[in-house]
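Hey, I'm writing a tutorial for new members on how sequence and structure tokens pair up, and I'd like a real worked example in the thread rather than a made-up one. If someone can provide the structure for the chain below, I'll link this post from the tutorial.
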Amino acid sequence: MIVFLLTVAASVAALLGGYTALRSRRWLNLAMAFTSGLVLGLVTFDLLPEIFDITHFQNLDPAWPMIALTTGFLLFHLFERFVPLHAADEEHYGPHRHPRLGVARAVALMGHSFLDGLSIGIGFQVSTAVGTAVAIAVIGHRFADGFDTTTFMLFHQNKLTHIKKWLAIVIIMPVVGGLASLAFTLSEKALAIYLGFFAGFILYIAASNLLPQAHSEHSSKKALGLTILGIIFIFIVTRLA
């Protein structure tokens, strides 16, 4: 029961993040700036430390999750490079936007959200203390996940109905992952490799999509401030967790 309640809390946090993003559509570049900070903070203060902890305690060669990180980074780059996203008349192509990129981001977070819930369940299989610590960390960054998914899809001009559908999937997946943990377990070594892949995936998104668009020539100092604020927010959440 405790696993179910905590995964529901994680889903609610993602819902609040998505709702906040929908309410901020008029200030999308500022929302993108804050989101880029959240993503960078999530990689540097949450995902990478978790990966290094697992590799240390499991005697796993750190090269494997780092290979996965590089693979995730390059795969998203190849997706943007080779998937036909643009119309034939390229001379009228302006900002790099396409709904398929928004959907790809949502699909990536869907898998991550599932493993968030699964991680909570697995943590409680180890001990109550470990499960509680994992749950706090997951709930802390689920707001960022919901906000990030919605903001990214808004920027890439996905329809509002599609955004709500994918956001609902991202929101519910921690609960599904938590329930799945009752049926099977995921080895920590496999989790470390997946986290590396996911870190590379969202690091590319932050570097090639979020930051360039948030800090365009028309943006203000507020954008830079919000990026730093997003990083600080994730840092505080991970330190408290």
